[in-house]
Design brief:
Helix content is about 25%, strand content about 35%. The protein is α/β, with parallel strands linked by helices. The protein has a single domain, classed as Vaccinia Virus protein VP39 (Rossmann fold, 3-Layer(aba) Sandwich), CATH 3.40.50. It has a seven-stranded mixed β-sheet. Helix 1 runs parallel beside helix 2. The protein starts with a strand and ends with a strand.
Amino acid sequence: MPPLFEELDWSPTPIGPVSLRRRRDLRTGEDVYEVKLGEEFLMSSQFTVSEIALARSGLALCEGDALDVVVGGLGLGYTAVEALADPRLRSLTIVEYLEPVIGWHRNRLLPLGETLCNDPRARFVPGDFFAMSAGDGFDPDQPGRRFDAILLDIDHSPEALLDTRSDSFYTPQGLTGLARHLAPRGVFGLWSNERPDEHFTERLAGVFDEAQAQIVRFYNPLQDNEAVQCVYLGRRRDG
């Protein structure tokens, strides 16, 4: 029988050590996977509703078939796997800055690694999402390639950043740079750990032709209350 708690990996990264832990939830008997950056909790497989909603809501706004999608921030893989569940998806480019996280999936340390690694539509791209957004885009083999949807889940919110790499991304200039990589009618989706911020939604509306914030609610058993997060969505009209 596996131990009730174990650290599966610990690796240094440019922004601090990242670790993957597995623990047994004694109430449900299920394994919970958690990721920490230093002493800060980044994500848990116990709370995935909003990560799934990011892909589901973002792709629901996409039109047509043969969708090419970018996911910025691999994490535990829930946004990426939900994107793969859309039958219209043609390709999925997963940009991840922390290479150990990609290794966890490739080495099958995480439950969703098998799905992501075995689907020919999915491709891992090690790199800095924010630098790529400001530069030639997210496909190293096709600079300037445009996508039907770009779904981002890296920072805790537009105001709560993991590190200084994304300082300028959430400004009008940064969002305009991101919009260059979207095809006509393309969709930008952004996960946030917080309730909708009216000021950021207005900023999004200044760059995209359509902008909204969708509230995501779910039960938090650790605090015995309702958690409220959100997904921001922006869509272009023309190229």
